[in-house]
Amino acid sequence: MFCRNKNARKGWARSARAVLAILAMTAATGGGYAAGEGGATGRVPVFEVDPAWPQLPNGWVLSNVAKIAVDSHDNVWIIHRPRTVPAGKISAPPVVEIGPDGKFIRAWGGEGSGYDWPDAEHNVFVDRNDNVYISGSSPSGQSKTTRSDDMILKFTVDGKFLKQFGGRTVSKGSLDPAAVNKPGDLYVWPKTNELFVADGYGNRRVLVLDADTFAFKRMWGAFGKPPADDDNSGGPGPSGGPMRPAGAGGGGGAPKVLDIDGPGPDRFAGPVHGVLVSNDDIVYVADRSNRRVQLFTPDGKYLTQMFLNRAGPSSGSVSGLAFSPDPAQRFLYLSDFGNSHIAVVDRKTLKVLYQFGQLGKEPGNFQGVHHIAVDSRGNLYTAEVAPGARAQRFLFKGLSQTLPPNALTPSELAPKP
Predict the structure, then answer these.
(1) Closest by Cα among 115, 76, 117, 120 to 99
(2) Is the distance from CB of 286 to CB of 198 less than 8 angstroms?
(3) Burial, 350: exposed, middle or buried (Cβ in 10 Å; 0-12, 13-18, 19+)?
(4) How many CB atoms lie within 10 A of CB 115?
């Protein structure tokens, strides 16, 4: 487990470093991602948590926040799991829209006529035409059933149902063109109006559909190879294996030995958890349990890969992807689910510039950081499932020539014995 020692943050060395960093940033930070500024070498984006965000009405609370997304109007969309709200609390509806000012706009979602609402809400994405895409991850994600969320739903921003792809417990595995299997992420590429699916908890592939008709376009696996299943993927179980009775199997045994050399496994591991396409037409895929991001052309040709915290301590890292909002998208942001960090990466070199956040419930730390998003002003948003069960906003404070005070040190990032 990652060290929770708060005293380390209060030590004289850390305090001195923080003071020096603040003084440096006062002189060095700029106001945005302007072309000259964002292209300057040696500068890194700096963020500050906004503990007052978001503002919800009616005494509503959020539970496990599975996904957060930003639409073309800079409105923030949250999907959470009302079934996991503690007794005595008033749950917000599953889908919540927040304006750029942090104030509530609308909320909707849940069971309805003509579609299969997920048993464990997982994804929300809003395309340029204001269509809202929803998917789930049951029987994982604290689901109350054993049914598999093998569908994608499409709605208007007001929650009017438009279309469904797949259904409950219908997936035939990673070669099935007609259903998903507990997808990890959804993204509509504006250039082609194609829906890219990180598929997922059950399958081991990237799936591409026409966003209007849901017609199958193409699919691929790790390193651009054809998708393939084994005994632990393609099925209705939480991670793609067969469904087992409650309490059967799993648990115990020796800790997983992490591979730290070579290219890694030739297949995606479960879950294939994130997908995003850059302005220069590169598809980024988060292979969480293999602790890596693989890069492809939009047709599925493998380009390269990077690892994040490959040596652990957690056996899973990259869960979410986001780009800085400048046209060149100079920075790639990665959420590390297992280690409770956000990584700031130079997108061209794939070098990790710094990481921030530790395991903790305090604002600015994380407990189960699951997905991330960025708005047009550069603000960063995070979604936390159990036990964090919250959304956070980190205000973009400019570009700095020095690392910010919350940058983790090598000793803080090193795996603990």
Answers:
(1) 76
(2) yes
(3) middle
(4) 16
Tokens of 29: 């930070």
Distant-in-sequence, close-in-space partners of 338: CB < 8 Å, separation ≥ 6 = 288, 309, 312, 313, 314, 315, 316, 317
What is the distance between the alpha carbons of residues 131 and 162, in angstroms, rounded to a whole number? 9
The DSSP string of 181-192 is SS-SEEEEETTT
274 three-state secondary structure: strand
Closest CA to 218 of 132, 160, 283, 137: 283
Q: Distance (Å, rounded) from C-alpha 208 to C-alpha 225?
A: 15
Q: Do 2 and 339 form a contact (C-beta atoms < 8 A)?
A: yes
Q: Give backbone dihedrals phi and psi of 325, rounded to 5 degrees, phi first.
A: -85, 0
Q: Dihedrals φ, ψ of 182, to 5°?
A: 60, 65
In sequence order, what are the beta bridge partners of 81?
Answer: none
pLDDT tens track, the chain, 417 positions:
223 334 333 333 443 344 344 434 434 445 566 533 444 468 999 999 999 999 999 999 999 999 999 999 999 999 999 999 999 999 999 999 999 999 999 999 999 999 999 999 999 999 999 999 999 999 998 899 999 999 999 999 999 999 999 999 999 999 999 999 999 999 999 999 999 999 999 999 999 999 999 999 999 999 999 999 999 999 999 999 887 654 444 444 556 789 899 999 999 999 999 999 999 999 999 999 999 999 999 999 999 999 999 999 999 999 999 999 999 999 999 999 999 999 999 999 999 999 999 999 999 999 999 999 999 999 999 999 999 999 999 999 999 999 999 999 999 998 776
The values of phi and psi at residue 6, to 5°, are: -75, -25
Give the domains, in start order, of the chain with CATH numbers. 7-244+255-413 (2.120.10.30)
Give the integer Cα–Cα distance in Å for 392 and 367.
11
Residues facing 366 on adjacent strands? 359
Q: CA torsion sign, 352 to 353 to 359 to 364?
A: negative
Comparing CA positions, the residue from 366, 358, 328, 332 lying closest to residue 346 is 332
